[in-house]
Amino acid sequence: MGQNTKMATSPRKISFLPALDALMPVFATIAALLVGAVFLLVLGANPLTAYSALLKGAFGDFNAFAETLVKAIPLLLVGLGTCIAYRGSVTNIGGEGQMIVGALLSTWIGLNFTHLPGWLMILIAMIAGSLGGAVWGGLPGLLKAYFNVNEILSTVMMNAIAVQIMNYMLRGPMIDPVQSKAASQIPQTARLLESYRLPRLVPTRLHIGLLIAFLLAIAVYIMLWRTTVGYRIRAVGQNQAASKYGGIDVKRNIVLALLLSGAFAGLAGMMQVYGVNYRMITDGSATGFTGNAGFNGIVAALFGQLHPLLTIPASVLFGGLLVGANAMQRVVQVPSALITALNGLVVVFVVGSEIFRKRSQRKRMALLDRESEPPDLPPTDLAEARS
Amino acid sequence: MISDLLSATVLIGIITSGIRLATPYLYASIGEMFGQRSGVLNLGVEGQMLLGAFVAYFVVLKTGNLGLAILAAVAVGALMGLAMGFVTIKLQATQGIAGIGFYLFGMGMSNLLFQKLIGVVENINGFPTLKIPLLGDIPVIGEIFFNQNLLVYLAFLLVPAAWFVLNKTTLGLKIRAVGENPAAADSLGVSVTRVRYFTVILGGVLSSIAGAALSVGLLNVFQQNMTAGSGFHRGRSGLFWQLETLWDFNRRIAL
Question: How far apart (Å, rounded) are the C-alpha atoms in residues B102 and B104?
Fold first, then answer.
């Protein structure tokens, strides 16, 4: 009864609805698209035609949607890693490098061991890919935990190292024998055996990696919120001092968060090779191999509010933007680079709108506190709360 | 062969171009240093550089006016810095992630504008070599240090200037105080917000000039970030990435 009257007297409460907070990234994206519309107008293209071409190119028919999902796979995997890292309050922006190292390791194994049954090799390659990424993410983790090195800088720098290793490997020891004889010298490896390729789901380029990524998203959710491992990572992320006091090894969990985060990116790299290109190929830059997935995955995870399950639709959306950008380029002659710029704007707007969510959350908490001030809690609840 | 490589002319040539190649790093890392000393980590430097590089190149291509090109780069850099400041200071967004956003924006935007407005790679007449009288005539040293273009001289003059501002002026003291202990600085009446806006905008301007130094001072050309296959491009994108080491290195020296 008392609660009802309070509801009536504070109509402001409606604006603090959690559902509205959850929609904040959507508003941020709409804002970014509006800014994009201004760019389009300035460039002399009709924003409506452009955006409808983008939509049709991404979700218009079966093939387009399959292509969108193919692009979404690495975004989702990198995004899952991002979720883990950020829940442990470490920032991993080394997704690009972790993808590269994971791909290098798994490709090397796939090219050098050619007598294994296909399913076994795919399994081994998945493990190798994750392992490569885990090492590349774990090193900055160790540096952070034991030498207090800023992990933002070290993960970015590890990207630069990975690119140089990739360029060396793909031009030297791992170069396609055909290319090493040819004059073109394209930095790429030989093709993987047909039996080693990830099976396709439907007669498109869509491969089984999608199902694996979906399952992993559920697994990450369970791990973070239903197991001790995840509890520890989140506890360290929220309050290191309290975690230490509670007997959690803070350093170990920092390393673990970055290590797991890297493993997912490494797996994403492996899937680009085993599921899409069937060889590792680059143009000499990180983007040449990853297609910026190491960064866009972060965007997707942020958009999914760093929740593994919400990251699924978010990565499909961004995969769609990437695929649709090419269609837009064909129809209205606006370079697909616009989408890269818009992705950047989405990131900026999403992180920029965080403050509004936090603010309304704080207000909601304050309101809740005020409401529970009169001690009308039954004594049993109090006892439970204390224990 | 080896003795050819080690001959004086070759060595002087290498060192001379080393000095020239260092210019973009210097501008960007000095800008970034100011930001970091005041407690703002700007990972959008690369995006700011790319936009600055494009804008300067575009202005030179259309008007041939080098001064105007630098002014345009300064304006773009200031705008990008202001935006970065607004998002990280006013809206308190996570600096690292906002920086990545600005990086993607700068990269996409410069590519987009390049493809839309220019399309093909064209050489321009960038900053000419400016020999300093007397000093430029000193053998070896003159050739290395005093036969460069204006942007190179300015970059190297900027180093002692930045040191002086940071360590010998009230402004520098405020910047360092805000970086080391914002709460204490605030309690003594230093506006943390204003100091950080200043350093982030300064950082944006210097990053943008760094890009301009690359496109109209060094290479006299602009290319998209992601064009496949050209060796020149590879060196350049590596250049941008290595920047990050340098700014951290710089920070360490400054500390």
Answer: 5
pLDDT band at A365 (very low <50, low <70, confident <90, very high): confident
CA torsion sign for A275, A277, A280, A284 is negative
Q: Give the pLDDT confidence of A104-124 residue by residue, as tens digits.
A: 999 999 999 988 998 999 999
Mutate to test the interface with B, among A347, A354, A356, A361 (most CBs of B within 10 A): A347
Greater model confidence, A172 or A285: A172
Q: Is the pLDDT of residue B213 over 90?
A: no
Asked if A340's CB is within 8 angstroms of B104's CB, the reply is yes
Do the Cβ atoms of B101 and A345 come within 8 Å? yes
At what angle are helices A209-226 and A308-332 packed, to 10 degrees? 140
Are B108 and A340 within 8 A, CB to CB? yes
**What gap in Å lies between CA A310 and CA A332, rounded to an integer?**
32
Can you give the pTM of this predicted structure?
Answer: 0.79
**ipTM entry:** 0.79
User: Which chain A residue has its CA at the smallest distance from B248's CA?
Assistant: A153
Segment A176-183 shows an average pLDDT of: 81
Q: Average model confidence (pLDDT) for chain A?
A: 85
**Per the CB < 8 Å rule, is A348 touching B98?**
yes
Q: What is the DSSP letter of A204?
A: S
Q: Evaluate whether A108 touches A252 at the Cβ level (below 8 Å).
A: no
